[in-house]
Amino acid sequence: EQNRNSLMFQFSRMTDTLWHALWIRGAGGWSPMVTDQEPWLQVDLREQMEVTAVATQGRYDSWDWVSSYLLLYSDTGRAWKQYRHEDGVGRFVGNVNSEAVVQNKLSHPVRTRFLRFVPRDWNPSGWMGLRVEVYGCSYKSYMADFDGRSSLLYRFNQKSMSTVKDVISLRFRSHQAEGVLLHGEGQRGDYITLELHQGRLDLYLNLDDSRLRFSSGRVAVSVGSLLDDQHWHSVHIERFNKQVNLTVDSHTQHFQTKGEGHSLEVDYELSFGGIPLPGKPGTFLRKNFHGCMENLYYNGINIIDLAKRRKPQIHSGNVTFSCSQPQLVACTFLSSSSSFLSLPSAASATGGFSVRFQFRTWNPDGLLLFVQLSPEPQRLVLQISNSRLYLTLHSSGRQKSEVSAGHRVNNGLWHSVSLDTKNLQITLTVDGEPSSAIELWEQLESRGNFYFGGCPTTDCQHLTPAFQGCMRLIFINRQPKDLNQAQQGLLGNYNELQFDTCNIRDRCLPNLCEHGGRCSQTWSSFSCDCSGTGYSGATCHNSIYESSCEAYKLIGSSSGFYSIDPDGSGPLGPTQVYCNMTEEKVWTVLAHNSTAPVTVQGSSLLKPHIMKFNYSASAEELQAIVSGSEQCQQEVVYDCKRSRLFNTKDGSPLSWWLDREGERRSYWGGFLPGVQQCSCSLEENCMDMNYFCNCDADTDTWANDTGVLSYKDHLPVSQIVIGDTNRTGSQAVYHIGPLRCYGDKSIWNAASFYQESSYLYFPTLQAELASDISFYFKTSAPSGVFLENLGLKDFIRVELSSPSAVTFSFDVGNGPVVLSMKSHLPLNDRQWHYVRAERNVKEASLQVDQLPLRFLEAPADGHPRLRLSSQLFVGGTASQQRGFLGCIRTLTVNGVSFDLEERAKMTPGVSSGCPGYCSGSSSLCHNRGRCIEKSNGYVCDCSQSAYGGTTCDQEVSVSFDMESSVTYTFQEPFSVMQNRSSQASSVSTESSSRAREDVAFSFVTSQKPAMLLTVSTFNQQYIAVILAKNGSLQIWYHLQTDRSPDVFSPALNNLADGRLHRIRIHRVGKNLYVQVSSTLSFAFPLIHNSNLENFNEKVMEAASKGFSGCLSSVQFNHVAPLKAALTNRGSSLVTIRGPLVQSNCGALAESTSHTLQGKTFTHSPHGNGTQKDLAVIAGVVTAVVFIAVCALAVISRLLYQQRRAQRSSSIKEETRHSVYTDYRTELHLHNSVRDNMKEYYI
């Protein structure tokens, strides 16, 4: 113990600077005994100090030093808290030798008396050795102690205090999660309340809003978390008028108060520590604060100082002016597999036994207590399971009794548990709620030790996971257990425990889930629920939508309503637009709220007619769409009779419109702003050439001025003002068309690099917490750096590291990370290749073309922020070495498209654009077709497209009758399964955000019910798309065989109507997005009570009926199974039954496209419990379909030849037999990956 914490230090004070230093100088230093378990060095500053920095050295003239350490601090030396930097990292960088001094400045100073240095790494060739120095200064402290029944009242000099500006600051500490810190209210209805609630700080503030006077209408602004940890927390409130900043520690919320008022009117007094009931001293409306406050200031007034000096404006009830609150000592269970605390039982005077303790955790599962009972072999287990407490009594054999209690006990708050055996009962009480009891036949006694948090014996090792969290106030048979004795080895035994501290963290504060994703956490990590956000990925970073209508056309979509996300992973949300793809150009159409012509009469310049236009997008989204398009336009139709647009005397406008910035515009056609004239003047065909507009002729007959506005910077029209229809016979009718844009400037924005030393430079990447980089490249060079950005130590780089490998590397402070993707084909083949690299606080990923993604998980407690300082180099490096030779296009970082062409115009060694047939925006190859450069032209590779023909624009359609079916089977070869890092393999099975399918097809049928297609695994998991008995579309997801399937009906009306229908199904993680190309009334009924038998009955009934009709353009991810079936009929892995006739059903789309519109809907089908299997299934599907060298197997639809529905059990048996019989030849070759195989049924 002497070696652990009781070395004495010299202390000096420099009074002129109030700077304090504590040190070990000269020879010697601290070094623990080799036998000490988890040693630490403790420093007593003798009084409260504000510590700003620490420094360390190794032991003098030795091989002993500490290379990394933790820093803990405490007021009393009993309850400790670990210091963490702003980014959440707890480790400090130590020494690399014994003499050099390494100083670490604290990003936020701490006020404390005790410091504890806990070594984590040291010289492997020596031992631990420390000399330390602490920097800081003293500060003045005014303290008050509230016992839960006391308060301070600050009474105003006048009846009411009205303020437009308030500044309130204080520090507090408490071991309770509830309590009022501050309250004031006025007769007008104003109030301010600051209180602890569930360990968070809530601020209620109302400025003259009558709707919020009653508690039911009060809305709190919450900041902070785990504030009941017995450590000091600082609070700062600033209000000016309605603008409020609420800061707790380093977390700030900015908000604006509701109501009409700008001042806060409080009557008589402000209370601190509670809300006293008027006229009843000692009675309070809410739970009082129990703890200590320090340096409490209200608008510059030191409240505690006034109270100490007994000033008349302060009334102090039962408040003392020191902090004597006892600190409750806790211990932390660190490991979910090996932590435990074993304590002996104390003798019970009444027989039986009792246990009491408190715990807090984020984990939904964990073992809390295990005890063996007498008579043998009975044992008692208390564990958390699915966020509830379960007490289980195991008797002989498999007999057991069980009760449950509590709800959401993994919410991070302290929960009290009481376990008692008496009166032939075992009672379980949680948080003082009504007890649950197990009835006994005989009185039970404890046998041996009590195991808390885990268990090392063979009797209970299977009870995993162990508990991860904190425990305190442990009583056995009503006797308290001293954890300090356990730490010193004098009481019981333990493993993987941290004493004297509850080292719990709120990993959802701040919330690192982007775009409104919901954060949830366990003890060691957090996860994001992206359902309903329109984004996917580990942190909801990636948009699930394409960036433009042009991008939708490139993947084979047809005209319809789509959600586009013009800034991708940027802050702007998705926008619903209509994509018109019937012309050569792809038009993006955004409608507004006034689609019908508007008639105007009686308006003048003094009382003009005003119409505001609201679009289906925000102003920022509109600007992103317009600026990203090549050209935009908006038609303005103005019919007039004695209604002029301009005053014929002085030319001043009588009517005008406002652009998107709200600026007045008075030109009515063309792209020449500032020219006050109409289209007829530009075209020189006005009815009276003396005027610039037809309407200015001011005739009694109807005239027309119609123009197309095409100056992008002014579009769209946000408002129109008509001011000349108040004369006799005056009338005007106007119509503002929708905003229409075409082209995507970023898709073909390219630059060519022809000198290795050349590069383009851009501003530093803003990518601290998340960054995604995507681009296309083509080259003949064997290697080269695509992109690089450096910091002092951090960096990020994407490069072609060999002719067939792309490497993504970065360092955020945890050491260099390298993620490499190797292609089975060369990447320097002068063809376009796609690269996407992403890095966030959870993981990094790399995608090249259609190869399966590679993932690498980030360390749980590593540095999260990427700190860059240099310029971003594209096509080269700062050293002008290893530069890229070739073309790069469509470079996008975090949703921002880089204008390579413009920057290349002013850079030597780089030229705008890229030579070659496949480098323009003419879309030579359609529907996912890939343009391949040839020496004298180009060809289209349609292998990954559902379409055929020389340019991939001919639909592949097949007519089926009820005897026809096609089966397509595919699997992931072993080599592809290994094409990922070892660290990533476990991640890919855990992360539901990576599970995805993309299915698209068209069909024509009059049959119902009917099976359209299914995807099935050999372990009976299905995705089935059917038409029900009424012709409605149903999508069945059955991804866990022990659970009911999820069923969705996106189209409730009859689709078996002999017309062409296009279906697109897109699943990302837990989100299902369905698009149906008919104008329908959609709903998503989820059949919660369905069972597996009903599932099989409905799907099997549809399968037994087969399909009679036409299917075309079938796409599953990047495979076109129907097309593959037709082109590989001779393969032993292709099964075709019945007649198949190539058809032209897809051609019907052109004749019916004017009646087809699409809509997009979202739903969250899958609960958290399904996610592990989802990731595995979708990971296999996605990986399988891109590998050309794998034994691409096969092709088909469910093989059911029955004409009548039979019992589902017999159908299931026949299905199983049919599948295994048809494919046993292939299966014996691939036994090791049988469970990874999938079938595609058409």
TrEMBL record:
Residue intervals passing through the bilayer: 1174-1200
Record keywords: Disulfide bond, EGF-like domain, Membrane, Repeat, Signal, Transmembrane, Transmembrane helix
Domain Laminin G: 143-323, 330-502, 749-914, 973-1145
Disulphide bond pairs: 887-914
Location of the protein in the cell: Membrane
Lipid bilayer topology: Single-pass type I membrane protein
Gene Ontology terms: cellular component: membrane
Residue ranges occupied by any EGF-like domain in the UniProt entry: 504-541, 915-953
Family membership noted in the UniProt record: Belongs to the neurexin family.
Taxonomy, superkingdom: Eukaryota
Encoding gene (name): LOC127365473
Every Fibrinogen C-terminal domain range: 540-592
InterPro entries in the record: ConA-like_dom_sf, EGF, FA58C, Fibrinogen-like_C, Fibrinogen_a/b/g_C_dom, Galactose-bd-like_sf, Laminin_G, Neurexin-related_CASP
Ranges where the F5/8 type C domain occurs: 1-137
Name of the protein described by the UniProt record: Contactin associated protein-like 5a
